[in-house]
Amino acid sequence: MDIKQSKKISYSILDLASVKEGHTPADSFAASFELAQHAEKLGYTRYWFAEHHNMINVASSATAILIGHIAGGTSTIRVGSGGIMLPNHAPLIVAEQFGTLASLYPGRIDLGLGRAPGTDQVTSQAIRGANFNMPHNFPKDIQKLQNFFSDDNWDSKVRAIPGEGLDIPIWILGSSTESARVAAAMGLPYAFASHFAPTHFTEAISIYRENFQPSEYLEDPYVMACINVVAADTETEAERLATSVQQFFLGVITGNRKLLQPPVDHMNNVWNISERYAVSQMLAYLFIGDKEKIKKSMQAFLQQTQVNEVMVTSHIYDQAARIRSYEIFSEALKEIQLG
């Protein structure tokens, strides 16, 4: 697994293939394709898709297919899942799918795994069918995947072809302390969903580091934090653009989900005081500003958390502004020196 400690922070992208007001999922996929090509030139390490279901504003439900689409249009950036939700899939199928991807794009595929269904209970039941009430053991399913990828599985009655013998890095994703303990016990890299679940972030990464057990996959703890970033050439413009992500999370809070909305001049016309507070709690790790402000706030965040990598998600309505935000963030990160 090519994961090493470094004083230069690595930075990556999490994409939900957000569907914008007035657009279609096909438009979202085209926008992701364009963004990934820019990200590769800008020095981003990874481009991951998150698995969600039954959300009108998120089109990344068929995660493995989108990974192949993006990997086929790029040449160096790593592409992967942030993540595959294991309750929804048999480990063998995941092994075959990612074995296929890793065979097509060797050395470039990441497999991030989550233990939540990535959807509501009714949709989860539709996905799992008769297996809905069966117990699910996240660590055991991870071990099954590791076994399918292992050379030692060659004489088993059930084999992952392709997949067997391939070096496909497995990441543990989480938004709680429980996932931190799983990642630590298994000696795997840990990616925390601080972009929407910031409450247990510092506690979880502390537990992970304190309990980490070196493995054949990873010698030292490796933490990646996912954050929201909206950057622009001026702070005023960044604040205006950020109203789209604020509206996105307002839909999460209220249950009134809409397609990604254009920015507005004043959020006070959109939310009430309690809704504003709830959204701000979820978006505790939302970084807004011009290059200098982003640089300053990220320097503080990195020094405080000592994470190895940051993964950025940016719900920005205008595609050109979205690409520009990632450009500014890249420029800011490259100028940060960590001791």
Q: Which sequence of SSEs, written as H and E, runs from N to C? A: EHEHEHEHHEHEHEHHHEHEH
Structural class: alpha/beta
State the shape: globular
Mean pLDDT: 93
Biggest sheet record: 8 strands, parallel, barrel
Unreliable spans are 1-6
| Percent strand | 5-15%
Name of the CATH first level:
Alpha Beta
Known CATH architecture: Alpha-Beta Barrel
Total discrete domains? 1
What would you report as the Rg, rounded to the nearest angstrom? 19 Å
- Total beta strand runs: 9
Instruction: Order the strands across the largest sheet as they lie in space.
Output: 1-2-3-4-5-6-7-9
What name does CATH use for the topology?
TIM Barrel
Please write out the topology.
Elements: E1 10-15, H1 25-42, E2 46-49, H2 63-72, E3 78-85, H3 91-104, E4 109-114, H4 121-128, H5 138-149, E5 170-174, H6 177-186, E6 190-192, H7 201-211, E7 223-231, H8 235-241, H9 243-254, H10 273-282, E8 286-289, H11 291-305, E9 309-313, H12 319-335
Parallel strand pairs: 1-2, 1-9, 2-3, 3-4, 4-5, 5-6, 6-7, 7-8, 7-9
Helix pairs in contact: 1-12, 3-5, 6-7, 9-10, 11-12
